[in-house]
Amino acid sequence: MARRTEAYPNNAPGPFFVDRTCIDCGTCYQFAPDTFADGGAHAYVHTQPMDEARGLRAAMALVACPVGSIGSDEKGHLQAAARAFPHPLTEDVYFSGYTSEKSYGAWSYFIRRPRGNVLMDSPRAAEPLMKNLEALGGVSMLVLSHQDDVADHAAFRQRFGCERVMHRGDGLTGLERLVDGDEPIALDEDLLLIPTPGHTAGSVCLLYRDCLFTGDHLWWNPEKRRLSASRTYNWHSWEQQLASLEKLLAYDFSRVLPGHGYLHKAQSPEAMRADLERAIRALRAS
Ligand code: SF4
C-alpha cells in the first residue's frame, strides 16, 4: 500500500501519487503514459487524470503495479480497475496486468483461442484476475519464457491444471513439459516455440499469428527509437543472444510483446524485419 507521506515530491498535485517503494519496472508509464512518466530511477505522476477514461487507466496501472507503489485518494475507479484485467491488446491477445514483484514487474500475456487459452509468463495470482481468466475459459497452457518471469506459475497450475512449458536450459523442476535443443517446436498448429538462448540458456520466444512474445530477449526502446536487448542484463551469453536475434529474421511477425520494455507494432512483417536488422546492426556495433 503506497503511503502519501513517502510520495515523491515531483508528483503532480492531485489524487494519484507514486511513493519511494517504486522499483521502476516501467509498467505504469508504459500502460498509462497520460498520467505516469519515467523519472529516471522511479516513476512519478506527471499529470493527474482529467477524465473518466484516464482515471480508469491510471487506476488499472495502480492495480498492475507489482509492489503497490501507486496510491490514490480517489477510490472511485479502483473496483472497476481490479476487474479490468486481462486487458485486450488485439482481438485475442490480452495484457494480464497484475504484474509480480517476483518477476520484477514483467508483463504476462493471455491468448484466447478456441483450441485452448495460453498464458505467456506468469502474472501475480490475484483472485480478480483468476476469476476473469476462468470466465474467459481458463488456461490450458502456461509458457515460461525464461527463469526470471515464472512468478506464481504453481498457483496457475493448481487453479487451472494448465500444462507448463519451458526450455530445459533454464531448468525449473516439476513442470509438465521441458523442451530441448535449438530447433523451433510446434506446441500447436498456431503456436511456435522458438528457442532463443542468450539472455539465459533456456530463453524462448513464442510466435502466435503476428505476435512474437519475447520475454527478456527483445523489446522496443523509445529513447533509441529502435528494438533493443540488454548486454547489462545478460545472464548467459551476449554472443548467443545476438545470434538468437538473427535467428528471428526467418519468421514473420509484426508485433513484439516483451516481458520488460515497450511493446512494438510494425506496419508489416517486412517492416518488422527491417526494424530487427537495424537493431542487430546497432547492437553488434555497440
Ligand atoms: S508500476 Fe509501480 S513499480 Fe513499476 S514503475 Fe510504476 S510505480 Fe514503479
UniProtKB/TrEMBL annotation:
InterPro entries: Metallo-B-lactamas, RibonucZ/Hydroxyglut_hydro. Pfam families: Fer4_13, Lactamase_B. PANTHER family: METALLO-BETA-LACTAMASE FAMILY PROTEIN (PTHR42773:SF1), METALLO-BETA-LACTAMASE-RELATED (PTHR42773). It comes from the Bacteria. It comes from Geothrix limicola. Residues 105-260 form the Metallo-beta-lactamase domain. This is MBL fold metallo-hydrolase.
